[in-house]
Specification:
Blueprint (H helix, E strand, L loop, with lengths): L2 E6 L3 H10 L5 E6 L3 H11 L2 E2 L3 H7 L2 E4 L3 H11 L8 E4 L6 H7 L6 E5 L9 E6 L7 H9 L5 E5 L5 H9 L1 H18 L4 H21 L4 H8 L5 H11 L2 H21 L1
Parallel strand pairs: 1-2, 1-4, 2-3, 4-5, 5-6, 7-8
Antiparallel strand pairs: 6-7
Helix pairs in contact: 7-12, 8-9
Length: 267
């Protein structure tokens, strides 16, 4: 049986999910976005059905994927609430918004699935946390929510109590990786390498190191030790990182992100 999946918000993440669903004959994808030009281009690329209003979309959809800024979510949910009932399911990727707050904004009319993606989903290499804590989620809705993001990466079913930790480590994680990549590139440039090849070298360094970690039977600590010869260049660098508490600063930075996520969820 064909399911109608409607997206309110078709920006980067919404568009990535839509593209991941493209070609599935069991799904009919609908979209609404204030940016009509971008929505039209996405419709041409993926075949989605453009909707004039969020409420029209909610009326026609079995699953309503909320891909708006957190500060806009309550207004959108209040608008579409008259079209909601137990046969429909809201899937929210709005950061920081709890199931409870989403249910309040939608007048508790339908089940809520909360999802936290990260940006590598844009290249089908994301990590998704999916919360199925809402006891009103049907078996069919549960199954659909587990499967819908798999074309875009790895999916983990987590209790909502674990979402702030996931956000601090994985949701915010790509920024930490890019931050470190930037520093590596700048160090290469400062030591005389041209920027373009330095950038490509660092990108390959991260790609290769990740591939090695994924495919090796060794723990990442053991892989680090393989590069760290006694009295060599690598240990000199690592001693400096330890002396300046880099590892502790990374742990503290993740905690800052975690605490901010907790704070946003309480507003």
């Amino acid at each position: 049986m064909t399911k109608n999946v409607g997206f309110i918000g078709t920006g980067n993440m919404g568009a990535a999910i839509i593209k991941g669903m493209a070609g599935d004959d069991n799904l009919n994808v609908l979209g609404f976005d204030l940016n009509k030009t971008a929505l039209g281009l996405l419709a041409e690329e993926t075949g989605l059905t453009k909707m004039d209003t969020a409420r029209d979309l909610a009326k026609e959809s079995d699953y309503i994927v909320l891909c708006v800024k957190p500060q806009h979510a309550a207004t959108v949910l209040e608008e579409i609430a008259p079209e909601l009932d137990e046969s429909k399911c809201i899937v929210s990727i709005a950061a920081g918004l709890t199931v409870s707050s989403l249910k309040d904004s939608s007048e508790n009319r339908c089940p809520i699935v909360r999802v936290m993606p990260n940006t590598p989903a844009l290249v089908n290499a994301g990590v998704f946390a999916v919360c199925l804590d809402d006891t009103h989620i049907s078996e069919e809705q549960n199954s659909f929510a587990r499967e819908m993001f798999k074309p875009l990466g790895d999916v983990y079913i987590l209790a909502e109590s674990q979402f702030d930790t996931f956000t601090g480590v994985i949701g915010s994680g790509p920024a930490y990786v890019f931050y470190f990549m930037e520093a590596m590139i700048e160090s290469a440039v400062s030591l005389g390498l041209p920027r373009e090849p330095a950038t490509k070298m660092v990108e390959k360094l991260f790609e290769g190191s990740t591939k090695l970690a994924q495919e090796s039977d060794f723990h990442v600590s053991e892989l680090r030790e393989m590069v760290t010869s006694p009295g060599g260049t690598t240990v000199q660098a690592l001693v400096h990182l330890d002396r300046t508490a880099t590892r502790a600063n990374i742990i503290d930075a993740v905690r800052e992100s975690y605490e901010r996520s907790v704070e946003l969820g309480q507003k």
